[in-house]
Amino acid sequence: MFNSKKKAAIKALQRQKEKLKYNDTYLTNVWVLQTSEILKKYLGSNSDFYKSAQQMKLQIAASNTAEFNENKRYYQDRAKRFIDGCIQYIHENGIVKERKPNFLTSISDELVWGIYIGTVYVAFYVGVWWATAPINPNNYPQQNNTVIEKPLPTVIPSDSANLNSDKPPNKKSK
User: Fold this and answer.
1) Burial of 41 (0-12, 13-18, 19+ CB in 10 A)
2) Distance between CA atoms of 96 and 90, rounded to whole angstroms?
Protein backbone atom coordinates (compact mmCIF):
# COMPACT_ATOMS: atom_id res chain seq x y z
CA MET A 1 0.00 0.00 0.00
CA PHE A 2 2.79 2.42 0.88
CA ASN A 3 4.66 1.53 -2.29
CA SER A 4 1.72 2.56 -4.44
CA LYS A 5 1.30 5.81 -2.50
CA LYS A 6 5.03 6.45 -2.76
CA LYS A 7 4.85 5.99 -6.54
CA ALA A 8 1.79 8.25 -6.73
CA ALA A 9 3.61 10.98 -4.78
CA ILE A 10 6.65 10.79 -7.05
CA LYS A 11 4.47 10.81 -10.15
CA ALA A 12 2.55 13.87 -8.94
CA LEU A 13 5.78 15.74 -8.20
CA GLN A 14 7.21 14.80 -11.60
CA ARG A 15 4.07 16.22 -13.26
CA GLN A 16 4.65 19.46 -11.38
CA LYS A 17 8.24 19.51 -12.62
CA GLU A 18 7.08 18.87 -16.20
CA LYS A 19 4.77 21.86 -15.98
CA LEU A 20 7.82 24.04 -15.37
CA LYS A 21 9.72 22.54 -18.27
CA TYR A 22 7.11 23.11 -20.96
CA ASN A 23 5.57 26.36 -19.90
CA ASP A 24 7.80 29.29 -19.00
CA THR A 25 4.97 31.22 -17.40
CA TYR A 26 3.61 28.38 -15.24
CA LEU A 27 5.53 29.25 -12.07
CA THR A 28 2.65 31.06 -10.40
CA ASN A 29 0.83 30.92 -7.13
CA VAL A 30 -1.42 28.20 -8.56
CA TRP A 31 1.59 25.98 -9.31
CA VAL A 32 3.04 26.60 -5.84
CA LEU A 33 -0.32 25.88 -4.20
CA GLN A 34 -0.66 22.62 -6.13
CA THR A 35 2.88 21.60 -5.19
CA SER A 36 2.41 22.50 -1.54
CA GLU A 37 -0.86 20.52 -1.38
CA ILE A 38 0.88 17.48 -2.89
CA LEU A 39 3.62 17.80 -0.28
CA LYS A 40 1.08 18.24 2.50
CA LYS A 41 -0.80 15.14 1.37
CA TYR A 42 2.23 12.85 1.13
CA LEU A 43 4.72 14.34 3.60
CA GLY A 44 2.43 15.98 6.13
CA SER A 45 1.91 19.56 7.19
CA ASN A 46 4.85 19.42 9.63
CA SER A 47 7.30 18.56 6.85
CA ASP A 48 10.10 21.01 6.12
CA PHE A 49 9.40 20.55 2.41
CA TYR A 50 5.82 21.68 2.90
CA LYS A 51 6.99 24.70 4.91
CA SER A 52 9.53 25.55 2.20
CA ALA A 53 6.79 25.45 -0.43
CA GLN A 54 4.78 27.86 1.69
CA GLN A 55 7.80 30.19 1.82
CA MET A 56 8.19 29.92 -1.96
CA LYS A 57 4.55 30.95 -2.34
CA LEU A 58 5.17 34.02 -0.22
CA GLN A 59 8.31 34.96 -2.19
CA ILE A 60 6.52 34.71 -5.54
CA ALA A 61 3.58 36.73 -4.23
CA ALA A 62 5.91 39.41 -2.83
CA SER A 63 7.90 39.87 -6.01
CA ASN A 64 6.45 42.23 -8.58
CA THR A 65 5.96 41.03 -12.14
CA ALA A 66 8.90 42.96 -13.62
CA GLU A 67 11.32 41.46 -11.09
CA PHE A 68 9.78 38.04 -11.53
CA ASN A 69 10.08 38.17 -15.33
CA GLU A 70 13.75 39.17 -15.08
CA ASN A 71 14.55 36.31 -12.69
CA LYS A 72 12.10 33.74 -14.11
CA ARG A 73 14.86 31.25 -15.01
CA TYR A 74 16.30 31.51 -11.51
CA TYR A 75 12.91 30.80 -9.92
CA GLN A 76 12.23 27.92 -12.31
CA ASP A 77 15.66 26.33 -11.69
CA ARG A 78 15.16 26.75 -7.98
CA ALA A 79 11.69 25.16 -8.19
CA LYS A 80 13.05 22.23 -10.25
CA ARG A 81 15.83 21.62 -7.70
CA PHE A 82 13.25 21.80 -4.94
CA ILE A 83 11.04 19.19 -6.68
CA ASP A 84 14.11 16.97 -7.27
CA GLY A 85 14.95 17.20 -3.57
CA CYS A 86 11.39 16.22 -2.64
CA ILE A 87 11.46 13.23 -5.02
CA GLN A 88 14.83 12.09 -3.64
CA TYR A 89 13.53 12.40 -0.08
CA ILE A 90 10.46 10.29 -0.90
CA HIS A 91 12.66 7.67 -2.63
CA GLU A 92 14.86 7.36 0.44
CA ASN A 93 12.39 7.83 3.29
CA GLY A 94 8.94 7.15 1.90
CA ILE A 95 5.80 9.06 2.72
CA VAL A 96 4.18 9.93 6.03
CA LYS A 97 1.74 7.36 7.34
CA GLU A 98 -1.69 8.81 7.86
CA ARG A 99 -2.84 8.76 11.44
CA LYS A 100 -6.39 7.66 11.81
CA PRO A 101 -8.12 9.64 14.53
CA ASN A 102 -9.94 7.82 17.30
CA PHE A 103 -12.17 9.06 20.07
CA LEU A 104 -9.20 9.65 22.40
CA THR A 105 -7.52 12.16 20.07
CA SER A 106 -10.17 14.77 20.85
CA ILE A 107 -9.79 14.33 24.63
CA SER A 108 -7.02 16.05 26.59
CA ASP A 109 -4.33 13.94 28.26
CA GLU A 110 -5.40 15.10 31.73
CA LEU A 111 -8.92 13.84 31.19
CA VAL A 112 -7.68 10.48 29.86
CA TRP A 113 -5.46 10.04 32.93
CA GLY A 114 -8.34 11.05 35.22
CA ILE A 115 -10.64 8.48 33.63
CA TYR A 116 -7.92 5.83 33.88
CA ILE A 117 -7.17 6.49 37.56
CA GLY A 118 -10.89 6.67 38.40
CA THR A 119 -11.55 3.36 36.66
CA VAL A 120 -8.68 1.65 38.49
CA TYR A 121 -9.90 3.09 41.80
CA VAL A 122 -13.48 1.93 41.27
CA ALA A 123 -12.41 -1.52 40.02
CA PHE A 124 -10.15 -1.99 43.07
CA TYR A 125 -12.89 -1.17 45.57
CA VAL A 126 -15.52 -3.22 43.75
CA GLY A 127 -13.10 -6.17 43.92
CA VAL A 128 -12.50 -5.62 47.64
CA TRP A 129 -16.22 -5.38 48.29
CA TRP A 130 -16.92 -8.49 46.23
CA ALA A 131 -14.23 -10.48 48.05
CA THR A 132 -15.46 -9.48 51.53
CA ALA A 133 -19.21 -9.58 50.91
CA PRO A 134 -21.06 -12.16 53.05
CA ILE A 135 -22.33 -15.12 51.11
CA ASN A 136 -26.06 -15.55 51.48
CA PRO A 137 -27.34 -18.74 49.84
CA ASN A 138 -30.81 -17.22 49.51
CA ASN A 139 -29.42 -14.77 46.96
CA TYR A 140 -28.57 -17.54 44.54
CA PRO A 141 -31.21 -19.37 42.53
CA GLN A 142 -32.02 -22.87 43.69
CA GLN A 143 -31.25 -25.67 41.33
CA ASN A 144 -33.92 -28.24 40.66
CA ASN A 145 -32.04 -31.38 41.49
CA THR A 146 -34.31 -34.31 41.92
CA VAL A 147 -32.91 -36.69 44.45
CA ILE A 148 -34.28 -40.15 44.59
CA GLU A 149 -34.52 -41.11 48.21
CA LYS A 150 -34.12 -44.76 48.97
CA PRO A 151 -35.81 -45.99 52.08
CA LEU A 152 -33.44 -46.83 54.89
CA PRO A 153 -33.25 -50.46 55.83
CA THR A 154 -35.24 -51.18 58.92
CA VAL A 155 -33.69 -53.16 61.66
CA ILE A 156 -35.97 -55.62 63.29
CA PRO A 157 -34.60 -56.74 66.58
CA SER A 158 -34.90 -60.42 67.07
CA ASP A 159 -33.70 -60.39 70.55
CA SER A 160 -34.09 -57.43 72.83
CA ALA A 161 -31.17 -58.63 74.92
CA ASN A 162 -28.85 -58.40 71.93
CA LEU A 163 -29.82 -54.77 71.37
CA ASN A 164 -28.54 -53.70 74.72
CA SER A 165 -25.29 -55.57 74.56
CA ASP A 166 -22.13 -54.27 73.05
CA LYS A 167 -21.37 -57.60 71.47
CA PRO A 168 -22.48 -58.45 68.01
CA PRO A 169 -25.19 -61.08 67.83
CA ASN A 170 -24.04 -64.66 67.49
CA LYS A 171 -24.73 -66.29 64.28
CA LYS A 172 -26.13 -69.71 64.53
CA SER A 173 -24.58 -72.26 62.39
CA LYS A 174 -26.72 -74.73 60.55
Assistant:
1) middle
2) 9
Integer angstrom CA distances of residue 39 from 5, 9, 49, 85, 145: 12, 8, 7, 12, 74
Summarised one tens digit per residue, pLDDT across range 120-174 is: 999 999 988 888 877 766 666 666 666 667 777 776 666 555 555 555 556 555 5
pLDDT tens-digit map of 11-20: 988 888 888 7
Cα 86 to chain centroid, rounded: 29
For residue 32, give the amino acid letter. Answer: V
d(CA 74, CA 67): 11
Distance (Å, whole) CA 87 – CA 17 = 10
17 and 81 Cβ atoms separated by less than 8 Å: no
Query: In angstroms, rounded to a whole number, what is the distance separating the alpha carbons of residues 133 and 171?
Result: 59
Please, how many CA atoms are within 13 Å of residue 39, restricted to the half-sphere of its CB?
A: 24
CA distance 70 to 86: 26
Its pTM stands at: 0.52
Measured distance CA(159)–CA(146) in Å, rounded: 39
Q: DSSP states of 133-157 as a string?
A: SPP-GGGSPPP----PPPPPPPP--
